[in-house]
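We modelled each protein-ligand pair independently. The example shown here corresponds to the nicotinamide-adenine-dinucleotide entry; the chain sequence is given first, followed by the ligand as SMILES.
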Amino acid sequence: MDIKKIAVVGGGTMGNGIAHVFAMKGFEVYLTEMTEELFKKAFNTISGNLDRQIKKQVITEDEKNKILSNITKVISIQNIPSDVQLVIEAIYENKEAKLNIFKQLEKQLNPDCIFASNTSSISITELSSVCRPDKFIGMHFMNPVPVMKLVEIIRGYSTSDETYEIIKGLTQKLDKEPVEVFDYPGFISNRILMPMINEAIFALMEGVASKEAIDSVMKLGMAHPMGPLTLADFIGLDVCLAIMDVLYNGYNDSKYRPCPLLKKMVAANKLGRKTGEGFYKY
Ligand SMILES: NC(=O)c1ccc[n+]([C@@H]2O[C@H](COP(=O)([O-])OP(=O)(O)OC[C@H]3O[C@@H](n4cnc5c(N)ncnc54)[C@H](O)[C@@H]3O)[C@@H](O)[C@H]2O)c1
């Protein structure tokens, strides 16, 4: 299948980035939000990010206008055209909400349309159970989408080889690197990243070192571009906790227990950059 027409559901941090990269490669993108205002916000973010690419001489003003013209506004998933060939869901990380989206789209979209989720941690197999399991796959883009090369491609229990090959090829067309992963809690990225961040928080809680010292060790000693506590603030502490809960419940293994300090900070609404304070103040 030669995919040309896609829908992206959710225009937040990830969704607007996903729409951006597909539109840049000439795909017809139906970007779907819940309200006019939210769509406008997503569209303006894409426009602003394209301006940055003009400044860096990656694209021209004319190309920017062409890219934006590839994006069509859709308010409410009921209005997604039935002949899109791929739908990528990027709404907030909540299993019930995602299942409701896929149940509705199953009724509405052509039977050959491939369904993908950008979930960070929810089981692809579980999400696929309410729609078309063989045509369902995880496309886990990284933040910020226009910059990061990796797309973790997650195969659910019933994802067909054909679906996998189509999505692998499509990812390469976006100039991104697909990496094949099977459906286990946290996939690969978050199964390795989150326990590292969680351990850094345990080290802070136990007074092994200051937050600055912990971040410096990982930055200067391991050549990480940012320390784990800075990264946790960037991702959002609520998101980190939700993913640790998925690992803990998914494997029933105490090695994934979320650090009590992480839980306390989430309870105090110190979620990182998005609330102005996490391990650091912004
Ligand atoms: N933020 C990250 O760094 C990151 C990285 C990789 C994967 N993810 C995953 O990507 C997904 C999206 O995360 P995000 O950070 O972009 O969230 P976000 O909260 O920034 O954006 C979610 C968007 O979805 C919209 N939305 C919610 N319900 C909708 C509906 N029914 N129809 C249309 N739009 C709807 C919201 O209005 C919002 O704009 C999550 O599953 C998350 O786990 C996030």
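Strands lie at 5-9, 28-33, 71-75, 86-89, 114-117, 136-141, 150-155, 177-182.
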